[in-house]
Amino acid sequence: MTTSPYKLAVEDLTVAFGHGRRARTVLHGVSTGVRAGQTLGLVGESGSGKSTIAKAIVGIHPIRTGRITLGGEDLTGLRGRGLVAVRRRIQLVSQDPYASLNPRMTIGEAIAEAVDPVRADARKHAATVERWLETVALDGSAAARYPHEFSGGQRQRIAVARALAVEPEVVIADEITSALDASVQAEVLNLLEELRRSLALTMVFISHDLAVVRHVSDEVAVLCRGELLEQGRVRDVYRAPRHPYTRRLLASVPAFEEKPAFEKTLEKKESAA
Ligand code: ADP
Ligand code: MG
Questions:
Q1: Does the residue 142 lie in any domain?
Q2: Cα 45 to ligand 2 centre (Å)
Q3: How far apart are CA 134 and CA 12, in angstroms?
Q4: Is residue 197 part of a domain?
Q5: CA-nearest residue, atom 6 of ligand 1
Q6: Pocket residue to mutate for ligand 1, from 26, 94, 206, most atoms within 8 A of Cβ
Q7: pTM above 0.85, yes or no
Q8: Mind listing the pLDDT tens digit for each residue in 6-57?
Q9: For residue 2, is pLDDT > 80?
Q10: Number of compact structural domains in the chain
Q11: Between 126-135 and 107-115, two packed helices, what is the crossing angle to 10 degrees?
Q12: At 264, which CATH number?
């Protein structure tokens, strides 16, 4: 066992692409982690290495040095069946829902496969599928339809339902609202916020958008050119960023003091309730 406070911990992670003189290091000894039942917001500009961290965690990118642990268990260098098992315990949802949703499978089939990869029978698992669809505020009738029949926001909610149906220990959401219009983005974020509470999710929420990250995270980690600059409680980092880069990043958020639209939507909902 480790003494790490984190459910999922990344220690001194280095990732490089290419070999020999062409090799380019994109993560330089990154250490971070997420506590059980909490959400870690991972922010950084495009190209800073956010997706590379996510992919290294789930074993898509090989790592040069470092260690990844889940509940104290070392996942580094797992292959074969061990890797397959870990991929179930940590679910990655990305910006492009087609990466996690097969266009030729009905939603019901896709979720049934997540529930039970061995006997992925949509009819056998109909009740469970319906429950997961309802969890993401979709009607059970969605089960018989195909991904292209849904809007972008609905597809992302389906991708989330599919990931949750695996009952993973950690969910990594990589820019899952970035391609959506502001109002649809607010809808997905409010849903995540609800799920985070009701399911006590442990989540890594990746975004280049600091306003969005603030809304859904307990802690925030700031990445810049493959280096982790600082990590702390959201209110501490946003009120008193320690690193000049974080200060600049916060200053560039338009009308940062003003509440973003989705928080206003939330307040409206709350006062209506
Ligand atoms: P972010 O998600 O923060 O936008 P990425 O992790 O996607 O950043 O990329 C970080 C850096 O690594 C970028 O410079 C990108 O070009 C590079 N990179 C990402 N994936 C690969 C790959 N498969 N091969 C080579 N370079 C890559
Ligand atoms: Mg990315």
A1: no
A2: 9
A3: 40
A4: yes
A5: 49
A6: 26
A7: yes
A8: 999 999 999 999 988 889 999 999 999 999 999 999 999 999 999 999 999 9
A9: no
A10: 1
A11: 100
A12: 3.40.50.300
